[in-house]
Amino acid sequence: MSNKFNKVLWELGRKIEDQSLPILNQHFDCNFERNENNIWDVLDFKDHEKKIIVEVKGRRISSEEFEDTLITASKITAGYQAIDEGWKVYFVFVFTDKMMMTELFEDSSFKVKFTGTNCIQHYMIPVKELKEISQEEE
Fold first, then answer.
1. pLDDT value at position 3?
2. What sections of the chain are H helices per DSSP?
3. Could you give all domains of the chain from N- to C-terminal order, each with its CATH number?
4. Could you please report the per-residue DSSP string of 45-66?
5. Helix (H, G, I), strand (E, B) or coil at 106
6. Mean pLDDT for each consecutive 10-residue tract of the chain (138 residues)?
């Protein structure tokens, strides 16, 4: 089993996050910041004043390709921990055709799937339950 850092995929993710940031700042009326000192930070953007966290997941498919979109269990666990500390937590999925989101609540529950080379636990989030975010920020 290999857990080698995939720099190309990481850079693609950062590019999607960077392109999404102005839209997210407008949508949430926030000033999100990334922890630039820790590229391994589990959740992407935080607005410390409003106590809102947004995790951005880029997708290389359209929103209609699958019924569910996956997110690693560690992201959900970190989200639950943040909720316990008084934060609101959102997961944003940037598909090729639209940007969609869901809020994590302390009582949220998901179907589980073990997948990937290392059979990592993921949660399945139904795409039909996601809310579209308008990308007309300017």
1. 63
2. 7-28, 73-84
3. 7-133 (3.40.1350.10)
4. EEETTTTEEEEEEE-SS-TTS-
5. coil
6. 68 84 94 76 89 94 96 94 97 96 96 88 96 73
Distance CA 108, CA 128 (A): 16
Output the six-digit token pair for 98: 């639209």
CB atoms within 10 A of CB 93: 22
- Residue 115 φ/ψ, nearest 5 degrees: -150, 170
Over its C-alpha atoms, the chain yields an Rg (Å, rounded) of 15
**pTM for the full predicted model:** 0.88
Classify residue 110 by its DSSP letter.
-
Angle (CA) 130 136 138, round 5°: 145
